Amino acid sequence: MPPALTKLIDALGNLPGVGPRTAERYAYYLVRREPAKAEQLAAALTGLHSGIKYCPKTFALIAADHDVSPLYSDPRRDRKLVAVVAEPLDIVALEKTNGFHGTYHVLGGLVSPIDGVGPEQLHIHELVQRIDDDEVEEVILATNASVEGESTSLYIQQQIGDREVKVTRLARGLPIGVDLEYADQITLSRALEGRQAL
Amino acid sequence: MPPALTKLIDALGNLPGVGPRTAERYAYYLVRREPAKAEQLAAALTGLHSGIKYCPKTFALIAADHDVSPLYSDPRRDRKLVAVVAEPLDIVALEKTNGFHGTYHVLGGLVSPIDGVGPEQLHIHELVQRIDDDEVEEVILATNASVEGESTSLYIQQQIGDREVKVTRLARGLPIGVDLEYADQITLSRALEGRQAL
């Protein structure tokens, strides 16, 4: 194989979940398309790190020429309501619901001893600071429904301590469109525990 | 989302089989890694089209500074034995078997009326020319075991006509490691038809 192709296949193979076969398929697709397609992707990659930075307030990803996240500076967003998420992309998922008018706080990961991530590496200290500065009334712990998500939640609750702030978390239960018989036991247990009056 | 990120997600979403979620995952992975990773991929993309060309003899992808495919010019490869494949990457698959010492001929696709690909768009004429020029003794039709693969094979056989050349195709049968009970009917029928004496 020509080195130019091998190099591209190797570089594409670095992407998460992309094995050699998939990398080959991507590369060959770009070979067959007009060079402009490959160049467009190259330009987007080159401009990536210079075009983004982390918001110093919410730690969301923002354009390099912004001071803080538009979702924080927007006066229509309620700063007294903060959704705490693990990663910047979780914001995209929550925004798509069109049902949240508060602000976000990105932790930058979840507590995970196996991966060597301790709570001091996450933006938990800054969250507590925000609770005090912005007189936050409700913190929604919108972390994954996983062991890491739960233990990070627990740690944050401890750090918030006896501040006068309501701490909530996303409901656990049946995902919409899923048959009860296919739901796993833990999900079903949580759905039972969190059952709601009609 | 910052435009630099949106642009990258859009560009990645052009890759085959990559939806918005996967593109987001790839982009966010590159955000978290050091900028060198993104730049390495950008460089590989920029150098792609300038670094490759098609071999004028076999239509394999070769380095831009080569005249013909090394798999054709290598004196250890038998030019009288030609494996006909649909795409350049099929060569990689066959080379991995380490069991083929002939040369290749890439058609550049398969006859597919639905996709508007007629036989005149494939390098079939050049194959027939090679059969004459190189006094080819055997042509192995190594096309997919699909309708398009079969009909392309048939068309090539017609074009070869009554030239004195053995025309073979890859065996159809049970893939290794697959239980007989899970094999589909057509595969099993072909395996029966092509049964071999022990």
Write the layout of secondary structure elements.
The structure is a homodimer of 198-residue chains.
Chain A: H1 3-12, H2 20-32, H3 35-46, H4 48-51, E1 52-54, E2 61-63, H5 70-73, E3 78-85, H6 88-96, E4 102-106, H7 124-133, E5 138-141, H8 147-160, E6 166-169, H9 185-193
Parallel strand pairs in A: 3-4, 3-5, 5-6
Antiparallel strand pairs in A: 1-2
Helix pairs in contact in A: 1-2
Q: Architecture of the largest domain in chain A, CATH level 2?
A: 3-Layer(aba) Sandwich
Task: Please state the CA-atom Rg of chain A, rounded to the nearest Å.
Answer: 21 Å
**Main sheet record of chain A:** 4 strands, parallel
Helix share bin of chain A: 40-55%
Tally of distinct domains of chain A: 2
In oligomeric terms, what are we looking at?
homodimer
Structural class of chain A: alpha/beta
Description of the structure:
The structure is a homodimer. The first copy, chain A, is an alpha/beta fold. Chain A folds into two domains: about 5-45, RecR Domain 1 (Helicase, Ruva Protein, domain 3, Orthogonal Bundle); about 60-170, Dna Topoisomerase Vi A Subunit, Chain: A, domain 2, CATH 3.40.1360.10. Helix content of chain A is about 45%, strand content about 15%. The first copy, chain A, has nine helices and six strands, in the order ααααββαβαβαβαβα. The first copy, chain A, has helices spanning about 5-10, 20-30, 35-45, 50, 70-75, 90-95, 125-135, 145-160, 185-195; strands spanning about 50-55, 60-65, 80-85, 100-105, 140, 165-170. Chain A has a four-stranded parallel beta sheet with strand order 4-3-5-6. The first copy, chain A, has a two-stranded antiparallel sheet with strand order 1-2. In chain A, strand 3 (about 80-85), helix 6 and strand 4 (about 100-105) form a beta-alpha-beta unit. In chain A, helix 1 (about 5-10) packs across helix 2. The first copy, chain A, is globular. The mean pLDDT of chain A is about 90. At the A-B interface, helix 1, helix 2, helix 3, helix 4 and strand 2 of A face helix 1, helix 2, helix 3, helix 4 and strand 2 of B.
